[in-house]
């Protein structure tokens, strides 16, 4: 097991190098000179341009800029935002809990609906339910998040007035963050109405962000279940005279869940990508909105380090999924 | 005993109730997070809304809803006859805000004023560089050419400050009303420096403005309270909240749902919905901007004014504006400066659409081909350069001129466009900084701006004389006359095709009073009230 783990970690190193190169190159490949972009319509005098170039280190040869960047990142220095002048890591730490909270609830939404729907579709294979579920899943998977979010806001918040339009919590609630998770902090402060407000603010963004994972999970659960339902041990269980619920719930589901767990882990990338749009629509103060704002502000340092930090998280989660998979399925370890 | 208890309970209930009734909260759905709260170091309109216009004041202020200058922290000022020395007399007894992180021990004085500017250019000032914040560029201070014009700032006595210039520069007064010229507290700066917490200066602001800072949850909510010691009197609203909402549709839905009271920049597509709603008002105003297209006036046949007029006449401007700005609309530009700016000449009209006349002139001049420049960027004064280019191309084709569209990425576009030998017609525009006409005329069409921001490479002696004279004259009535004449020359010479001043909108709930659209594009909440 240890060897397996070390193997996996060793494989991460080239990925990591690749990501630093991508993040570094990506920002430099963006059209436009970063200094001129920062200067705006006023422009800069040639002397000032040179001064700024030196200040930001853009006068160095490209490999030296890269070496500097890697050196800084390796020592945990992710740079300082050009616009806010705050350390990028500090901003990331402040904002990440919001993204995590939203992603968590989006995932809960996707699993609570996706897994049962997938099971039901597999059991009733070919029925109208199965057909329409798979059709809906396809629609959900292809849904443009931006459009979907605005549609829900206009209908539920604007027309029906059931949910708040955007934000994390009602503006009347104001307390110092402890964990950074609004739902937990409101409870720690003993404010039930704040907790309810935080939950109501989570409903629409969690649905929007959870839609694509929901579609993926439902389809994956269905196909995994179908495969397992055809296995000999399920037939045996049925032949033993076990109830349908027991056959499906215990014998089939436990085995079918293995690939589903992997799928759920791999959805983390989808969630973080989706968070960029969802957070922007719902004014959710997380890292997705932060990235979008920084792109608009031409804050290259935040974009570069933000990309890297997000990539690191996705890599870490994928590693955990790999390890979990090996724990669930011992055959993998030997391979 | 029981009586006392009842009385105490009644008193408590009464105070709670009165507290509830009197705490007026105004929620503004702002479009983006502020970079920080030090207006000297930032450049965005949203940064200034959250810092300079709420927390700080300046020596002079722009009139609410206009571009005229009125007294601010300086009650009055004198300008020497040679236009070189400005003496400001500070309002006595102005208090800096008292918060849980700073308790001022003295009133505002000349030291604060001198410090506020000194930190922006004096490399020896510890607040100028990395000790305070990394990579500081003081963009507006340098952008407005302050290092060139300012010789020195001096304290005469506690309530008198003297500014000496290197050469007369009438727009200086307007510069001092700008956000970067906000007056900060030297006492607070000294205290933070002593405590080794200099960076707090940009995150926990202290000023003399109408509202004081309470809290900022990164990218989510900014909270302010009315400054009880505000020298112009405490505001009517008690609490001001900025709910940061970047998506325009979500922002408008929030106002419609009553989750916020004021929101800026609706989507053009939502304008009709907003107008139909009885709970909100849509406010609009021509923005302090201009979209235009510069002809290179040094390359024949574009060096002839009649050819430039003919090209202007060939463009169906009304259809062009409609297609570009759609429901949001825009004010067709008659002059380089927008009608909200002082000295706008109402008698000047730009070329009317007249393709037949244009065709004759262009045929006679032998103009068959022209380059027409377009970039990829969305600007407030022109939402789609490419589309505009295509429409103008079609109009010109009708009068026998074949236009070739030249495309570049935005920064490269401006680099190429400002070259003296750049051929053809170049689409560009400008958003004003300080509401002074000089900021348009001299910045965009002075002879010295050729190769920098005079994309027409146009240097007209009469025009130049007028704008240079206006720059050195401190009397506004005199300056107005000079700029009015300059506009007549501009219209006659037509160095550019003038497109439009885009419309700026805000959505305000009906129970809010006192909110005004501002030509400078800022959102101010002093003087705003809200009925329950």
Averaging pLDDT over every residue of chain B, what do you get? 91
Structural class by helix and strand composition of chain A: mainly alpha
Spans of chain A of 5+ residues with little confidence (pLDDT < 50)? none
Strand content of chain A: under 5%
Rg calculated over all Cα atoms of chain B? 26 Å
Count up the helices of chain A: 14
Number of beta strands of chain B: 20
Helical content of chain A, roughly? over 70%
Tell me the radius of gyration of chain A.
Answer: 24 Å
Oligomeric status: heterodimer
Enumerate the spans of chain B where pLDDT stays under 50 for 5 or more consecutive residues.
1-21
How does the overall form of chain B come out from the CA principal axes?
globular
Largest sheet properties of chain B? 8 strands, mixed
Q: Output the helix-strand order of chain A.
A: HHHHHHHHHHHHHH
The pLDDT mean of chain A sits at: 86
Question: Gist?
Answer:
The complex is a heterodimer of chains A (335) and B (532). Chain A has helices at 2-29, 34-39, 46-56, 62-74, 88-123, 128-142, 145-159, 182-188, 192-229, 232-239, 244-281, 287-296, 300-328, 330-334.
């Amino acid at each position: 097991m240890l060897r397996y783990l070390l193997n996996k970690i060793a494989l991460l190193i080239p990925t990591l190098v690749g990501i630093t190169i991508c993040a570094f190159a990506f920002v430099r490949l963006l059209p436009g000179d970063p200094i001129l972009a920062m200067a705006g319509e006023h422009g800069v005098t040639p002397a000032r341009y040179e001064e700024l170039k030196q200040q930001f280190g853009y006068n160095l040869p490209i490999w030296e800029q890269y070496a500097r960047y890697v050196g800084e990142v390796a020592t945990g220095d992710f740079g300082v935002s050009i616009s806010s002048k705050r350390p990028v890591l500090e901003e990331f730490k402040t904002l990440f809990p919001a993204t995590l909270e939203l992603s968590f609830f989006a995932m809960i939404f996707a699993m609570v609906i996706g897994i049962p729907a997938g099971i039901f579709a597999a059991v009733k294979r070919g029925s109208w339910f199965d057909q329409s579920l798979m059709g809906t899943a396809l629609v959900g998977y292809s849904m443009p998040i931006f459009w979907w979010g605005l549609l829900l806001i206009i209908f539920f918040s604007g027309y029906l007035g059931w949910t708040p339009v955007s934000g994390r919590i009602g503006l009347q609630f104001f307390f110092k963050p402890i964990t950074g998770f609004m739902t937990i902090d409101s409870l720690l402060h003993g404010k039930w109405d704040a907790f309810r407000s935080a939950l109501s603010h989570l409903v629409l963004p969690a649905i929007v962000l959870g839609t694509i994972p929901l579609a993926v999970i439902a389809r994956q659960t269905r196909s995994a279940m179908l495969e397992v339902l055809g296995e000999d041990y399920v037939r045996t269980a049925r032949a033993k005279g076990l109830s349908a619920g027991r056959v499906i719930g215990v014998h089939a589901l436990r085995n079918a869940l293995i690939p589903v767990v992997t799928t759920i882990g791999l959805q983390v990338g989808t969630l973080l990508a989706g968070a960029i749009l969802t957070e922007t629509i719902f004014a959710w103060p997380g890292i997705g909105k932060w990235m979008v704002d920084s792109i608009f502000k031409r804050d290259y340092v935040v974009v570069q380090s933000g990309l890297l930090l997000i990539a690191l998280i996705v890599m870490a989660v994928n590693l955990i999924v790999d390890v979990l998979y090996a724990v669930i399925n011992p055959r993998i370890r030997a391979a | 005993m029981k009586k006392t208890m009842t009385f105490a309970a009644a008193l408590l209930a009464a105070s709670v109730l009165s507290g509830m009734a009197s705490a007026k909260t105004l929620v503004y759905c702002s479009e983006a997070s502020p970079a920080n709260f030090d207006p000297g170091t930032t450049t965005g309109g949203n940064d200034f809304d959250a810092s300079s216009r709420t927390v700080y004041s300046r020596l002079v202020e722009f009139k609410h809803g206009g571009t005229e200058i009125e007294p601010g922290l300086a009650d009055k000022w004198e300008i020497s006859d040679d236009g070189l020395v400005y003496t400001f007399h500070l309002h006595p007894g102005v208090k800096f805000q008292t918060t849980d992180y700073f308790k001022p021990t003295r009133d505002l004085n000349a030291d604060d004023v001198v410090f506020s500017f000194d930190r922006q250019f004096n490399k020896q000032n510890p607040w100028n560089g990395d000790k305070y914040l990394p990579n500081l560029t003081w963009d507006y201070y340098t952008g407005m050419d302050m290092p060139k014009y300012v010789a020195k700032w001096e304290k005469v006595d506690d309530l008198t400050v003297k500014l000496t210039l290197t050469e007369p520069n009438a727009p200086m007064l307007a510069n001092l009303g700008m956000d970067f010229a906000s007056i900060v507290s030297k006492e607070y700066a000294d205290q933070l420096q002593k405590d080794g917490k200099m960076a707090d200066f940009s995150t926990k602001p202290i000023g003399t403005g109408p509202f004081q800072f309470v809290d900022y949850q990164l990218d989510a909510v900014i909270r302010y309270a009315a400054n009880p010691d505000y020298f112009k009197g405490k505001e009517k609203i008690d609490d001001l909240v900025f709910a940061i909402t970047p998506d325009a549709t979500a922002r408008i839905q929030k106002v419609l749902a009553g989750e916020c009271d004021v929101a800026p920049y609706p989507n053009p597509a939502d304008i009709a919905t907003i107008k139909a709603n009885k709970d909100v008002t849509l406010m609009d105003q021509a923005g302090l901007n201009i979209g235009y297209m510069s002809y290179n006036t040094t390359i024949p046949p574009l060096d002839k004014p009649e050819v430039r007029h003919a090209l202007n006449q060939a463009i169906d401007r009304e259809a062009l504006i409609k297609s570009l700005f759609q429901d949001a609309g825009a004010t067709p530009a008659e002059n380089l400066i927008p009608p909200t700016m002082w000295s706008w000449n109402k008698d000047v009209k730009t070329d009317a659409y007249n393709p037949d006349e244009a065709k004759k002139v262009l045929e006679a001049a032998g103009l068959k081909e022209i380059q027409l420049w377009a970039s990829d960027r969305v600007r407030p004064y022109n939402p789609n350069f490419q589309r505009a280019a295509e429409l103008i191309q079609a109009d010109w084709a009708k009068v026998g001129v074949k236009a070739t569209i030249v495309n570049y990425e935005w920064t490269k576009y401006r680099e190429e466009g400002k070259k003296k030998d750049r051929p053809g017609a170049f689409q560009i525009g400008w958003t004003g900084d300080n509401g002074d006409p000089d900021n348009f005329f001299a910045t965009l069409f002075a002879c010295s701006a050729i190769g920098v921001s005079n994309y027409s490479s146009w240097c007209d002696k009469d025009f130049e004389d007028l704008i240079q004279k206006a720059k050195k004259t401190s009397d506004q009535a005199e300056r107005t006359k000079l700029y009015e004449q300059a506009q007549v020359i501009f219209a006659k010479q037509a160095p550019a095709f003038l497109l439009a001043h885009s419309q700026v909108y805000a959505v305000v709930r009906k129970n809010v009073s006192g909110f005004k659209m501002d030509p400078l594009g800022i959102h101010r909440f002093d003087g705003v009230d809200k009925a329950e």
